[in-house]
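Same chain as my last thread, 489 residues:
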Amino acid sequence: MRLVVIGNGMVGARFVEDLLARDHDGKYDVTVVGAEGCEPYNRVLLSEVVAGRHDLTSLTLPTPEHPRLTVLRGTAAASIDREDRVVTTTDGSRHRYDQLVLATGAEARIPPLPGLDVGDGQLPRGVHALRSIDDAREIIAATLNSRRAVVLGAGVLGIEAASGLAQRGCAVTIVHPAAALMERQLDGPASSVLAGAMPDVGIHPRIGVGAEAAIVANGRLTGIRLTDGDVVESDLLVVATGTVANAALAQDAGLACGRGIVVDEASATADGRIFAIGDCAQPPSGAMGLVAQGWDQARALAERLTGTTVPGRASRVGAGGSDVVRVKAHGLDVVTMGVCGGDRRDDPTQRTLSLSDPGAGRHVEVVVSGDRLVGATCIGAGQVASDLVAAYTRRTPVPRDPAHLLLTALSPATAPVTSPDSLPDDATVCRCNGVTKAEIAQAHACGARTVEDVAAATRATTGCGGCAQDVCRLVDWLGTRAGAATSPR
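reply #2:
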């Protein structure tokens, strides 16, 4: 059976890897059409590259070598003929399919700001999005001659980008028209604490103020005029104002599209031969914009198409733990999960408790329903954030008095325990990939002695990277335990 996959990014590449690993009967011959000319890479860590904490080569994701796999890199799909079941690429080649998977992702949204479009969709010199590996290269190069930078948008990516620019020596202003930073995850009080911590790491926040125009001279950015009349001088602008699903190919083929390609819970479009996964898809439960959701869709679709399941790997789409957000920004410790943000609905069954200490740069809020933690916001909370993530993802009962969750010094009887020794075997360590403690222990028993070894064996740490410290601690603990077991008595 001929299977064509359009898109060779994080989700498309993962789907192909999962499908081929499950296709024991040799049912599929797979052709991947990828517009980018490079190997698939971890887009989530691009901000870490800008910050200098990762190099570009470390982002590469594996591509399986398989006799039934053909990968066409640097080749863009031009059209889909659903009646003839053919994908035509921009070089004129035609690829017939029996089933088609769209993993076309999303592109950076560029706001219609005067001064940003210098013709033919080109941006002025000094203006960049951060969506591709080429974007990261260009931003790094630009910081060599830039000392003043502006970031438009203070969502997760915007804050991470601002942190990366500050790490490279730029004086950074982050401009955000909403009333709160990261408003999907933070309410007003939490945003205020985060904004108060930003100047200490070289970031000046402008909240509740938008950009009115880009000031350009001789084709190069010189500043940004804000809606309050202020002008922020700048020779570098990074646009982080969200993404737009790459759905034009599907729409031109007559498939239903809204914010993305409309699919059911099984990732199927109205055309039963065509599926969509990742950032380009619009499932009934909504798109979270997190790689964990896309990878879960990829795995579930691979299982569906091959008629296989992996024991203990039930679908995690929308499940507790797949919506944990950890901001990767030097000096800004922000973790959110579940019910959070200023726009959450009023639910009388939920109790909300908070501790806010702006002077110390600390804010913790927990949301409890019954005896379960259903949401939390943690800024500058350190170990408390780790404990809350453990309680949330493991769905452990909260203390009788949930106020104990807000404290750093919890009694042993009520504290969520995150040390490797007391972590249950089925506890999820890497949320993006659903890797458990038991799977990491098994990899260690088979010879994985470093975090890199564990990543190669289990995929742990290859998503957002937020679990790297936990995996490192677990590997060290496993090594110590193995040493103790083999030492003479």
